Input
Amino acid sequence: MKTIIEPFRIKSTEPIKLISKEERIKALEKAHNNVFLLDAQDCCIDLLTDSGTGCMSTAQWAAMMLGDESYAGSNSWKKFEKTVKDITGIKHVLPTHQGRAAEAILAQTIIKKGDIIPNNSHFDTTRANIEYVGGVALNLLCDDGLDTSSESLFKGNMNLDKLKDCIKEHGKEKIPFCMITVTNNTGGGQPVSMENIRDIKEILKKYDIPLIIDACRFAENAYFIHEREEVCKDKSLLEIAREMFSYADGATMSCKKDGLANIGGFLICNDDQWAEVFKNLLILREGFPTYGGLAGRDLEAIAVGLMEALELDYQVYRHATVTYLSDRLIERGIPIVRPAGGHAVFLDAKQFLPNISPLQYPGIGIINAIYIEGGIRGVELGSVMFGKFDENGNEIPSSLELVRLAFPRRVYTQSHFDYVVEVIESVWKKKDQIPGYRITYQPEFLRHFSCHFETV
Ligand SMILES: *Cc1c(COP(=O)(O)O)cnc(C)c1O
Output
């Protein structure tokens, strides 16, 4: 049999509704042309994010009933800790309410002003947390990763020469740790190879620089390694994940991704002294170290979800849904990042709208057009999200202008994606009518969440 089917059946449904085009136009106006400010019920197919939007399994719901809500030393915590250690082999586990809380604790305890943190590509909250404490978030993505048409298999890899140059230029004193994001969310959800992780560790080891994995999609990355790296094809995803983490000194995690849960995260490390300072800040910000801002039932759901994410038939299905959408867009000549990433399809907004300059935000143009056309919500990963300014306050455009259509886990069916294809194709056919945008209001950090736009 060639057809890949969903390895589950549906036990509980949630209605979705498509409001009229007039209502969508009004809703977007009211949201200042920023889809983050829309009411969720006005979005028919919500591909804004794959974060915390997944569907939990019956095993996860059942586990939630076992939630032990004791303040300290709960049974749920023990299951959570055991599962995280089983997958990662890392010594100290600190639960947090989300990935960014783990990043904040890491940044605020370890990074000094002027420190450099290399990564393949920093995710937006990671960058914001590093910059908030005066650090510099450096992206050292391989060249293939910047070429949206390259069919390279591991476009999330770090450029090792750039890493060596970075260490030579700044010295290890200025680099308290290096990160690697698997899969590389910001760079199109592209995977990082085992070989690359191993090589990064080799380089860092010479200088005693710790490696921290941004592990949000560790299971999707393990699946890509399984499929694409010959030496790993006979290993289970759990074995691959264990090897990935064996090269790391720590990790930050958002369990809203490959934890298959609606909330949660963790920070892990091997170093005892780091664990001590992390714990002190954790207690101040998140909670006692055996719950860290989560309910016992959340810890239970995550412990089950982390292992479900490593099931091969789940990953096969998940990748098939992403490929299903991307193949249909490619057939229609619609420019997307190739090959398809792990959790999303990324439209290449620069190629989609070549006549709109990056600082008139072509990604926002596409997002707003597909919302109006079909009530579908996506997100820009381009000059708005990664907006930077030079010393004179001039805006520097991002190297990539992408529109991300993220896939909530186990939520939408094939006919939902057929509809998505129809809507995007219809927008593609009248792309010349899409306007550019300017920002009329923006906050200092993470501006994409709340800024206002008007058409140029
Ligand atoms: C989502 C995400 C984060 C932050 O996690 P939150 O739970 O949203 O705070 C960090 N890094 C990457 C790669 C992510 O995708």
Remarks:
- The chain has a mean pLDDT of 96.
